[in-house]
Amino acid sequence: MTLPPDREPGTDSTASESALGDPIRDQDETPSVGQADADASAPADGANLARRRFFRQFAGDLIQTAAGVAGVAQALQRASAEAAGAILDPVGTAARVETAAATGSASADASADQANPDPGTPAGFRTPFREDDGVLYLIDQRQLPDRLVEVAVRNAPEAASAIRTMVVRGAPAIGQVAAIGMALSAGRSAETHAYARRAILRGAAAALRAARPTAVNLGWAVDRMMARYGSFGELTEDGRAVAAALRAEADAIVFEATTDHGRLAEFGLAALPIREFGPVRILTHCNTGPLACGQFGTALGIVQAAHFANREISVWVDETRPYLQGARLTAWELAQAGVDHTLIPDVAAGSLMRGGEVDVVLVGADRVAANGDTANKVGTYPLAVLAARHGIPFFVCAPTTSIDLATTDGDGIEIELRPDDEVLLVRGVRIAPIGTAVRNPSFDVTPAELITGFVTEEGVVRAPFGAGLAEAVAAATARWAPTRPALGPDPTIPDAGELPADGATAADGVTAANGSGARG
User: Which of 6, 94, 197, 463 registers the highest number of CB atoms within 10 A of its CB?
Assistant: First the structure.
């Protein structure tokens, strides 16, 4: 793992501003909102430290402030939406939070301000879910970009259905939605008998895990929720205590994701190549913005950071067949945020690279094996091959919750097969003869040797990846350890604490179950 220069032996600590220093740890020099906004209007020369600190300010201070003001279970979700909305409107966001503090209300909910912005009018990125009065509302991503509508989710089975049918997608986002779904089911079963509650929560966990098997964040979040449940003893009669604990755990998962994705964006901004003339030309695949991640996004979070920092950028958007997440979702998000972008057919990427029109490739990840092999949206592997052929940096941008230390390499990653109609039809219109056979893998695996580096919330991990990825997971776990409660074993896993048959491990207080690599 590449350490920030101020932590490298024999390196001047003042060098951290120009490389991968960790601005989150430099809290004494955090600028005010007005100062950060002023800095954003100044000429950008690389990853300006004050601009990078913007993420720490909004992903940390504002979230905690809003949570304290609201004083309700959903405060962290509201504040997460606010933090994401703040990326391109820091002054307006600060004013809303200050108003909430002055009135003692929880009015700092950015989602209401961004409900269905006019096409072509920059309005900022927005998160894929919000909560109101015990109901989780998900943006139906199948309807974008034509319509911005929401689907109501009241329990874990409904969350599983929404995940399976692609109402919500993206590994980090579905992990958070699963956690909230579990909390909703716990709340609705608070007054039931202990045996019935156990059956409800176990069934909910099984349904959620099976909804999208490749995405490691989903299993990670469900395992963490069930471990919290198990810490009470699975037949406890105090259903209200169980509900409160699972509610708090879901909120914590969202809060941690918000903070971590902001950190990831900082490190990614510092890692972007710098061109002397013209924009940095970024090629991205699938959708990795807030719609997919819940907050800033991963690869698109870095794009947000660059845009806010006044870095001149342009984005090549792969359409991402067959489900067109790039054409429908990434292009929509970038248009709403006012980021320069151009949509391309997936098959055009190679000729663009050959013509010298791509400076860097940024992609996300649904699962990263211990050796660095990475499962991501199908079509990622060909991009990595093309980037290697043309000497173009290829970065996988993913939080450590997507790192699966329990899976040795890519051969152990289960690849989800999606329905035939996603290939046979384009938005309801048939494009192939009736009876055509289809194979529709949702993901492919990119070998580690084709990857330049992994951008995580703990820094940029470079080869050899095995040690670096493990170090990043350990660092993230240690960073959150003081605020994470001690968890008991997952009651749905036999002989928890020992090595289960599926290869999960438990060591040093970090449990890796069902392919999840950083569980606490």
Answer: 197
Interatomic CA distance for residues 284 and 282, integer angstroms: 6
State the first-to-last Cα distance of the chain, in angstroms, to the nearest integer.
21
Q: What DSSP designation does 417 have?
A: B
* Nearest alpha carbon to residue 515 among 124, 102, 223, 174: 223
pLDDT on residue 499: 28
* Residue 128: predicted pLDDT: 87
Question: Among residues 6, 366, 373, 490, which one is catalytic?
Answer: 366
Nearest partner of 285 among 329, 237, 326, judged by Cα: 326
CB count within 10 Å of CB 24 equals 21
CA dihedral 245→56→21→42, nearest 10 degrees, is 160
Q: Are strands 374-377 and 443-446 parallel, antiparallel or unpaired?
A: antiparallel
pTM recorded for the entire structure: 0.72
d(CA 271, CA 273): 6
Closest of 352, 341, 349 to residue 299, by C-alpha? 341
Interhelix angle for 75-85 vs 239-271, to 10°? 20
* Exposure string for 138-165, b = 16+ CB within 10 A, e = fewer: bbbbbebeeebebbebebbbbbbebbee
Residue 423 near residue 436, CB atoms below 8 Å: no
Contacts of 90 (CB under 8 A, 6+ apart): 33, 36, 37, 40, 54, 58
| Model pLDDT, residue 49 | 46
**Residue for token pair 């002989």:** 495
CB 516 within 8 A of CB 216: yes
- Cα pseudo-dihedral 212, 463, 15, 399, rounded to 10: 10
Helical residues (DSSP H) of 391-452, grouped into ranges: 421-424
Task: Name 147's Cβ contacts closer than 8 Å, sequence gap at least 6.
Answer: 140
Query: 302-320: b or e for each residue (b if 16 or more CB lie within 10 Å)?
Result: bbbbbbbbebebbbbbbbb
- The helix/strand count (H/E) of the chain reads as 19, 18
Q: Which residue has the tokens 């329905």?
A: 419
pLDDT reported for residue 99: 52
Residue 506: strand, helix, or coil: strand
Task: Output the CA angle 444-450-456, nearest 5 degrees.
Answer: 80
How far CA 213 is from CA of 14, 307, 378, 431, in Å, comes to 45, 34, 15, 28
Residue-level pLDDT at 483: 75
pLDDT at 243: 92
pLDDT at res. 346 = 96
Q: What pLDDT shows up at residue 96?
A: 46
Strand ranges across the sheet with 150-153: 129-132, 135-139, 150-153
Query: For the chain, which residues score pLDDT lower than 50?
Result: 1-94, 96-97, 100-101, 104-122, 488-520
Is 366 a catalytic site residue? yes
Which H or E run contains 268?
A: helix 239-271
